[in-house]
Design brief:
Elements: H1 34-59, E1 90-94, H2 103-111, E2 116-127, E3 130-135, E4 147-154, H3 156-161, H4 167-184, E5 190-195, H5 202-214, E6 221-226, H6 236-242, E7 245-248, H7 270-280, E8 284-289, E9 293-297, E10 303-308, H8 312-317, E11 321-326, E12 330-336, E13 341-343, E14 346-348, E15 353-359, H9 361-374, E16 379-385, H10 398-406, E17 414-421, E18 424-431, E19 437-438, E20 444-450, E21 453-456, E22 467-473, E23 476-477, E24 485-490, E25 492-493, E26 498-508, E27 515-521, E28 524-527, E29 529-531
Parallel strand pairs: 1-2, 1-16, 2-4, 4-5, 5-6, 6-7, 8-16, 17-29
Antiparallel strand pairs: 2-3, 9-10, 9-15, 11-12, 12-15, 13-14, 17-18, 18-26, 19-25, 20-24, 20-27, 21-26, 22-23, 22-24, 27-28
Helix pairs in contact: 5-6, 9-10
C-alpha cells in the first residue's frame, strides 16, 4: 500500500496516567463520645477507605516501574500491561505474493482474534480517458472463520480521472472485477477501495462510494481506506455514511524529512483521530504499521525515492555500510553505499544513502494500549499493514504482533551455541525474545577461544552482512596468523531468527581440547554453550 498523502499531524504515543489515590479526612463527633466510640468510628472508616482504595486499584491497576529504563530502547521491555485478551479483534492487510500459513501461524491468527483479511486484488489506472484494471495479489490459505475482503487500489491517474462524467465507467469496472473475484472466492465478504483522494474532493468521492454500494450484493460490505488529512474535512461524515466502515492509516503520513530523520513509518495523532471518529459515530478500523520502509537519498541528502523494496539485510549484502542509528519507538538506520551497487532490480549510485525505518513491537504495544484506554465504541478492529509473507522489506512476525496485542512483548534475548559437525564447528546465534535485537553502534559480541590452539576466520569474512567476524588473540584483534580465537559482532538479529555461521576452524594444540566462548549484548552476558567439544 503506497504511502498516503502527507498529513500534518505528528505521531503521539502518550503514556497512561494513573489517578492519585486520595484518603478522605476522618472527623469525630465530639469529645464526649469517648475513646471507645472514637475507636469504633476510626476502625469503620479505615475499612471503608481500604475498600474504596482496593476498588480503585482494581479498576486502574498501577503501572510497575520499569527496572530496565536505562537500557537502550531496542533492549527495553514494553510498557507493563495486565495479561488479557485484546479488547478489539485484529485484522490484516495482505498486499503481495502467495501466503501459505503454517499451523502455528493459523493458531496465532486465532489468538489475535483475527476475523478479517483485506487482500489486494489489483490496481485501477486511467489512460486516454479509459479505466483499466491490472490484476495483482496472490493466493491465501486462511483458517476457518476469517473473512476475506477484496481490495482494489485506485492509482493517481484513476483518482484524477474520477470526475462525475466518468464515475459510471469506473463503477462498472470495479463491480465487474469484484464479481470475478467472488467467483474465485464464493465466501468473499466485502470490497474495499484504496484511494488517495484529495481532501478537497471528499464530497465527490462520498457520492461515488454511495452509488457503488448500490451495485453490491446486500451481504457484501463496502469499505474504504482513509487518509488522516480527511479528518479536517466537513465531508468526512458523509463519506463514512456511504460505506460500512473506513480504515484510517496511521503510517507514512509525511514525506521523509532527510536521511538523518528519526522516524519514517509511524504517523498521526491516534488519540485526536479516535475522538473525531467517535464523534461522527460510524464504524471504522484503526490501521497500524508493522512494516519497515526504506527511502533513498543522494549524497547531499536530497530525497530520490520515498519507498524502496529494500531490507536492511538486502542493502548490507549489496555492500552498504552502517553510518548512523536512532533507537526509539521507531528504530532508524542510515546506510551508505561507497561504491555503485545493485539491490534486486535497482541500481544504486555511489554515495547514495538509505534510511530504513523499523517499527518495534514495543511501540506497537504502546499504540494498542492507547487505543485500549480510549475504549472506543465504534472501532471494529485494529488492522495491521501487512500480513508477513512475500514482502521485500521486513515485517513484524505474527508472533510479535500477537505479543503487542496482549501486552507481553519480551525484549531481545540472545543465545549462542557452538557445535561440532563432521570435523567443523558451527556457531548459531538466536533471538528468543519478541523484540528484534538492533544495535550496530554497540553490537552483540560472541568470542570463541581455543586453548593453546589456532583459529581461522577466512571462511567467515562477512562484508555486507548484519555481522562481522575477525581473528583475535587473547580476546583482542590480531593478524590471522597469530589468532587463537574468533570474535563475531552482530548488529541485527530478528525476533525468532537464528543466524548460523559455518564452517569455523578452531584447532587445538598440545592435546588440549578446550574450547570456550562468551556472548554479550547490551548489559547482558552469558557463557557460550559448547556441544560435542571432544569430537
Amino acid at each position: 500500500m503506497p504511502p498516503p498523502s502527507p498529513d500534518r499531524a505528528a505521531n503521539c504515543l502518550r503514556p497512561r496516567c494513573q489517578p492519585p489515590l486520595t484518603t478522605p479526612s476522618l472527623t469525630g463527633r465530639g469529645r464526649k463520645a469517648g475513646h471507645a466510640r472514637w475507636s469504633l468510628v476510626l476502625g469503620a472508616s479505615l475499612v471503608a477507605v481500604l475498600a474504596a482504595a482496593l476498588a480503585l486499584q482494581t479498576r486502574n491497576p498501577p503501572i510497575p516501574v520499569d527496572p530496565a529504563a536505562e537500557l537502550p530502547p531496542s533492549s527495553r521491555p514494553p510498557p507493563s500491561a495486565p495479561e488479557r485478551k485484546p479488547i478489539l479483534p485484529a485484522a490484516l492487510w495482505h498486499w503481495r505474493g502467495d501466503v501459505a500459513l503454517s499451523k502455528d501461524e493459523s493458531d496465532l491468527l486465532r489468538q489475535m482474534g483475527c476475523k478479517t483479511v483485506f487482500a489486494y486484488q489489483g490496481v485501477i489506472e486511467s489512460a486516454a480517458g479509459r479505466f483499466a484494471l491490472s490484476p495483482g495479489g496472490g493466493q491465501l490459505n486462511l483458517p476457518d472463520g476469517v473473512a476475506l475482503h477484496a481490495v482494489f487500489r485506485l492509482a493517481a491517474s484513476a483518482t484524477a480521472a474520477l470526475t462525475p462524467e466518468k464515475t459510471a465507467a469506473a463503477r462498472a469496472l470495479i463491480l465487474d472485477a469484484f464479481q470475478k473475484c467472488r467467483r474465485k472466492h464464493p465466501l468473499l465478504a466485502g470490497l474495499q477501495l484504496d484511494c488517495d483522494m484529495p481532501t478537497s474532493r471528499l464530497g465527490e468521492y462520498a457520492e461515488f462510494l454511495r452509488e457503488l454500494r448500490t451495485g453490491l450484493p446486500p451481504e457484501c460490505e463496502l469499505s474504504a481506506t482513509m487518509l488522516l488529512d480527511w479528518l479536517r474535512s466537513a465531508d468526512l461524515p458523509a463519506l463514512m455514511s456511504a460505506v460500512d466502515f473506513v480504515a484510517p492509516q496511521f503510517y507514512s503520513t509525511e514525506p521523509p524529512k532527510g536521511p538523518d530523520a528519526d522516524s519514517l513509518v509511524f504517523g498521526g495523532d491516534l488519540k485526536a483521530a479516535i475522538l473525531r471518529l467517535e464523534a461522527i459515530g460510524r464504524p471504522y478500523l484503526v490501521g497500524l504499521p508493522v512494516f519497515e520502509q526504506c527511502s533513498l537519498f543522494d549524497a547531499a541528502g536530497r530525497l530520490e525515492m520515498p519507498a524502496l523494496p529494500v531490507s536492511a539485510e538486502g542493502a548490507l549484502a549489496a555492500g552498504a555500510q552502517f553510518r548512523r542509528q536512532s533507537l526509539g519507538a521507531e528504530n532508524t538506520v542510515e546506510l551508505a553505499f561507497p561504491e555503485p551497487a545493485t539491490v534486486g532490480n535497482l541500481r544504486i549510485p555511489a554515495g547514495a544513502r538509505l534510511l530504513i525505518g523499523m517499527p518495534t513491537a514495543v511501540a506497537l504495544c504502546a499504540q494498542v494500549l492507547t487505543l485500549r484506554d480510549l475504549t472506543p465504541k465504534h472501532c471494529r478492529a485494529v488492522c495491521f499493514y501487512r500480513l508477513p509473507g512475500g514482502e521485500s522489506t521486513h515485517t513484524l512476525s505474527l508472533a510479535q504482533v500477537n505479543a503487542a496485542l496482549s501486552g507481553t512483548v519480551a525484549p531481545a534475548r540472545l543465545a549462542a551455541t557452538l557445535s561440532r559437525h563432521d570435523g567443523a564447528w558451527r556457531l548459531r546465534i538466536r533471538n528468543g525474545g519478541a523484540e528484534d535485537w538492533l544495535n550496530f553502534a554497540a553490537p552483540a559480541r560472541v568470542t570463541l577461544q581455543a586453548a593453546n590452539g589456532h583459529a581461522a576466520v577466512e571462511p567467515l569474512l562477512s562484508a555486507g552482512r548484519p555481522y562481522r567476524c575477525y581473528p583475535t588473540r587473547g580476546g583482542n584483534p590480531c593478524s590471522p596468523l597469530r589468532a587463537d580465537g574468533i570474535a563475531v559482532e552482530i548488529g541485527l538479529v530478528r525476533a525468532g531468527q537464528e543466524i548460523a555461521l559455518e564452517p569455523i576452524r578452531l584447532e587445538c594444540r598440545n592435546d588440549s581440547r578446550t574450547i570456550s566462548g562468551k556472548l554479550s549484548w547490551g548489559v547482558h552476558s552469558a557463557d557460550l554453550e559448547v556441544v560435542n567439544a571432544a569430537d
